[in-house]
């Protein structure tokens, strides 16, 4: 399977001068797999990525792709490798989704088998690398770290430090009835730690699956009362990469939730390859982290694909949340529908950049993109750039962007119906967010998130 | 794409002739001496020379920007002739003394300068290579107190006015090409409209490049005093040469309290042949400053020529309640490249801006809209509406949009929408059903597509622009 790379994806952060400390900066974990065949495979992948890292540099605001997101705060922290502390199952209770009967839990990037539970019919794989049946060992190298955009510095850093992989593999013609929950927990400690989780999802032809990828911080959310004082200390860096391969006519419904601690750094990459007739839906919710960045990259490898991207960012305080999406359509008859919303309070700063490439072969493409931003305070800030690059002439492409505050008339209308000002505002903000949250196929998760928005 | 559409786009460039005229040309290359020479030739006051030298020193420290979506081979700045002027008598007192060859040239371009044939109610400043050759209706304008002359004349007659405003909107170190222009600009137009005056006629400057190796670096400065109004239009053509020529102009507009400036451009520089050989590099910095309260600056541009168009006419809305507008039609055909758009910087309270941009790309051309809407923290109640539509003719053309929206005030309302489409088979079928040929149908649809922009042009030019567009597209439809 070959994928055409859209021109400027790999350039970011690659410079001539060499940042030799980069590798050691975000401590490499040793490979956590036993199987010798896999160890040598991982080692080869790591070595290749390490070479890339050695020619790269952490981008600055002078790089167009990072113009509004200043990483100097991230660079100034001296991160340590993750410690081995583990939460107990009881502490996790509130996080578990009753709908999802299977879950994989990773703590600080390390697989926690005692916390995980997998109840899936035979043939469907949800495990870490060690649990992967030997039949798949030779196949894995066709997929792992093979998507374009792997040269991007943070993706390369993650690849260079691959210790284990969360793998979901759906064989041909299988429809997975219950959602699969991938839970990535960071446990805060006094020293800032770095974790670099990695997911690989392969949906073979005619299969269907629902996934929830969940980034969570244990300290702040699980035992909030006892650790209130420590909340400010929970500095850590999550550098996550998820690759999803959809074969012909496969269907993946993917929900990604980032609710890291308000002092954390989060950089996440979601890279998708979509073969002919496949359908992919992503609902990405960004709530946490002091600085977060989500790179969403979709590569079309066959015609007539359908892509639905929903995004919601709700931030306040001094948070910065950045979403960069790239949709590279290289084949005809693709449709895409993207809706990204930001709710920005206090002094927070939301960034959105949505690129859509429609080169000449992608005739009859129908791509629509909408970015809506709600500013809740005078100091809030939004930078948005919806970007279209089109060569095919027989296409329908449209994009829109709006920025505004809550409409006074709407607030007044609700007040005239007897709601107080706070309730009226909450109701409106909630409705703004609900449009995205309601796209999540898990009712219990919808409820939890709507409650969070109400705060 | 059927044959009719194709024939519609490929109309030959009819302004491509060269006027054979004796010219006063300085040697190629750029150095402090060249700048001193230009300044001396133009008999400029001392401050101007300093301004130029300062800009030149800045320029030497700067590097050529590379972020745009246009591609061109490196420009050798030492291979350009920075000053070329038709040889003339020491001083022109009236139009009768203008070289008849020049008058003929402008006649041929459809810009009659001689008394009897003038366009009624439009005052024209004609610029040929590096110098202004004639300005019409000067006396009539002077009666109202309006100053309309070439910038060299303004430097001699009204140095204090020029000194006050020159470089105030586009500082010399603003960007690479603006710095170059500040160092070497040769001529341009100067307009000053006094307090509470409505300029009685349309003002217009016509730029003509004639010589083959010169760059054209003109500088336009328009100052509208409190409560005044002026409408200004520029047009441009150049002969066909195989080599590329650099045109790096700077336009500065200043609108004081309650003043309004309307600036329209119909740009038809030579675009190069269908293989992209030759043509003008149109790298222009245009910026308007709405300095006073309730002031308004409106840009309208119809960009059909140039091998490369790279410009962003901008408005800095400083005065409270000031208004910025940008209406643009950019047409690219063959190998043309355009990276154009606008910047609206909201600084004052209740400032409003409107952006309407229409891009049409045919052939193998590339047409990008790049725009910035910035609302600074103090711009309470700022309002922006942007609309960029692209139309693609043929499947080798590119249409890109890069809108930057930066908002730092929650009371702002910013809306942006963009769409890309083509002339559909159904639409063409509908027309042919009604007995209208494909060619007419396409030209009708394009003028409908551009109507929002053409409506903003002064009457005479709207007709002209519509015609120009259908000529340019001749051969690409069907």
Automatic annotation (TrEMBL), chain A:
It comes from the Bacteria. Residues 187-432 form the SUF system FeS cluster assembly SufBD core domain. Residues 19-181 form the SUF system FeS cluster assembly SufBD N-terminal domain. Transmembrane segments: none annotated. InterPro entries: Fe-S_cluster_assembly_SufBD, SUF_FeS_clus_asmbl_SufBD_core, SUF_FeS_clus_asmbl_SufBD_sf, SUF_FeS_clus_asmbl_SufD, SufBD_N. Pfam families: SUFBD_core, SufBD_N. Belongs to the iron-sulfur cluster assembly SufBD family. This is Fe-S cluster assembly protein SufD. The gene is sufD.
From TrEMBL, chain B:
Coiled coil: none annotated. This is Fe-S cluster assembly protein SufB. Belongs to the iron-sulfur cluster assembly SufBD family. Residues 126-199 form the SUF system FeS cluster assembly SufBD N-terminal domain. InterPro entries: Fe-S_cluster_assembly_SufBD, SUF_FeS_clus_asmbl_SufB, SUF_FeS_clus_asmbl_SufBD_core, SUF_FeS_clus_asmbl_SufBD_sf, SufBD_N. Residues 207-449 form the SUF system FeS cluster assembly SufBD core domain. Pfam families: SUFBD_core, SufBD_N. NCBIfam families: PRK11814.1 (NF008773), sufB (TIGR01980).
């Amino acid at each position: 399977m070959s994928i055409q790379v859209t021109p400027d994806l790999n350039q970011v952060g690659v410079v001539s001068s060499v940042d030799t400390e980069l590798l050691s900066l975000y401590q490499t974990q040793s490979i956590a797999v036993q199987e010798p065949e896999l160890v040598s495979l991982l080692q080869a992948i790591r070595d290749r990525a390490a070479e890339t890292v050695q020619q790269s540099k952490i981008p600055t605001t002078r790089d167009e792709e990072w113009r509004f997101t200043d990483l100097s705060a991230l660079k100034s922290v001296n991160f340590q490798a993750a410690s081995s502390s583990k939460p107990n199952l009881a502490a996790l209770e509130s996080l578990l989704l009753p709908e999802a009967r299977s879950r994989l839990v990773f703590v600080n990037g390390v697989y926690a088998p005692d916390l995980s539970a997998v109840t899936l019919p035979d043939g469907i794989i949800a495990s870490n690398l060690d649990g992967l049946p030997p039949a798949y060992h030779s196949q894995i190298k066709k997929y792992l770290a093979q998507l374009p955009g792997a040269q991007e510095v943070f993706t390369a850093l993650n690849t260079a430090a691959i210790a284990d992989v969360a793998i979901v593999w759906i064989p041909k013609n299988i429809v997975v009835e219950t959602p699969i929950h991938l839970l990535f927990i960071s446990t805060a400690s006094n020293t800032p730690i770095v974790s670099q989780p990695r997911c690989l999802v392969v949906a073979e032809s005619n299969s269907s699956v629902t996934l929830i990828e969940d980034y969570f911080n244990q300290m702040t959310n699980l035992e909030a009362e006892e650790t209130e004082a420590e909340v400010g200390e929970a500095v850590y860096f999550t550098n996550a990469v998820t690759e999803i391969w959809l074969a012909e006519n496969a269907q993946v419904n993917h929900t990604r939730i980032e609710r890291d601690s308000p002092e954390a750094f989060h950089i996440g990459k979601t890279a998708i390859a979509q073969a002919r007739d496949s359908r992919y839906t992503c609902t990405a919710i960004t709530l946490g982290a002091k600085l977060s960045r989500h790179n969403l990259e979709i590569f079309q490898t066959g015609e007539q694909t359908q892509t639905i991207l929903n995004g919601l960012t709700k931030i306040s305080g001094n948070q910065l949340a950045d979403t960069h999406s790239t949709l590279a359509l290289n084949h005809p008859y693709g449709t895409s529908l993207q809706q990204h919303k930001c709710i920005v309070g206090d002094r927070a700063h939301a960034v959105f950049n949505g690129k859509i490439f429609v080169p000449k072969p992608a005739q009859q493409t129908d791509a629509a993109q909408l970015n809506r931003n709600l500013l809740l305070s005078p100091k809030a800030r939004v930078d948005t750039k919806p970007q279209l690059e089109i060569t095919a002439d027989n296409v329908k492409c449209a994009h829109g962007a709006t920025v505004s505050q809550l409409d006074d008339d709407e607030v007044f209308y609700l007040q005239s119906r007897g709601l107080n000002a706070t309730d009226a505002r909450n109701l409106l903000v909630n409705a703004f967010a609900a449009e995205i949250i309601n796209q999540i196929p898990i009712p219990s998760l919808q409820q939890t998130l709507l409650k969070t928005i109400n705060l | 794409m059927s044959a009719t559409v194709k024939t519609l786009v490929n109309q030959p460039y009819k302004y491509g002739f060269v006027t054979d005229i004796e010219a006063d040309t300085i040697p190629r290359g750029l150095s402090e001496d060249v700048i001193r020479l230009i300044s001396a030739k133009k008999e400029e006051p001392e401050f101007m020379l300093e301004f130029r030298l300062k800009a030149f020193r800045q320029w030497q420290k700067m590097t050529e920007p590379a972020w745009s979506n246009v591609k061109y081979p490196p420009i050798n700045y030492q291979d350009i002739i920075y000053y070329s002027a038709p040889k003339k008598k020491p001083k022109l007192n009236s139009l009768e003394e203008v070289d008849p060859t020049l008058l003929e040239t402008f006649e041929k371009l459809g810009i009659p300068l001689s008394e009897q044939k003038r366009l009624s109610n439009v005052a024209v400043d004609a610029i040929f290579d590096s110098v202004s050759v004639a300005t019409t209706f000067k006396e009539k304008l002077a009666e109202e107190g309006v100053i309309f002359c070439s910038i060299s004349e303004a430097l001699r007659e009204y140095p204090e006015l020029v000194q006050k405003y020159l470089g105030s909107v586009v500082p010399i170190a603003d960007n690479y090409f603006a710095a170059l222009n500040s160092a070497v600009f040769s001529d341009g137009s100067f307009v000053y409209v006094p307090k509470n005056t409505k300029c009685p006629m349309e003002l217009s400057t016509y730029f003509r490049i004639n010589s083959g190796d010169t760059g054209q670096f003109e500088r336009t400065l328009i100052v509208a005093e409190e409560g005044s109004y002026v409408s200004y239009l520029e047009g441009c053509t150049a002969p066909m040469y195989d080599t590329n020529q650099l045109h790096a102009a700077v336009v500065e507009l200043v609108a004081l309290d309650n003043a309004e400036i309307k600036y329209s451009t119909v740009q038809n520089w030579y675009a190069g042949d269908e293989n992209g050989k030759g043509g003008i590099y149109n790298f222009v910095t245009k910026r308007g400053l709405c300095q006073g309260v309730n002031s308004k600056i409106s840009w309208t541009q119809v960009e059909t020529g140039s091998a490369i168009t790279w410009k962003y006419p901008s408005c800095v809305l400083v005065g409270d309640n000031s208004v910025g507008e940008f209406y643009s039609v950019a047409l690219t055909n063959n190998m043309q490249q355009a990276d154009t758009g606008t910047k609206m910087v909201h600084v004052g309270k209740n400032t409003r801006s409107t952006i309407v941009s229409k891009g049409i790309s045919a052939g193998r051309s590339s047409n990008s809209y790049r725009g910035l809407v910035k609302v600074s923290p103090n711009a309470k109640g700022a309002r922006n509406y942007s609309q960029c539509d692209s139309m693609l003719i043929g499947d080798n053309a590119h249409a890109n949009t890069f809108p930057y929206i930066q908002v730092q005030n929650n009371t702002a309302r910013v809306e942006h929408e963009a769409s890309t489409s083509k002339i559909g088979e159904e639409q063409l079928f509908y027309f042919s059903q009604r007995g209208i040929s494909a060619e007419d149908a396409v030209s009708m649809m394009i003028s409908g597509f551009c109507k929002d922009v053409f409506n903003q042009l002064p009457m005479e030019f709207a007709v002209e622009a519509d015609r120009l567009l259908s000529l340019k597209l001749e051969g690409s439809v069907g």
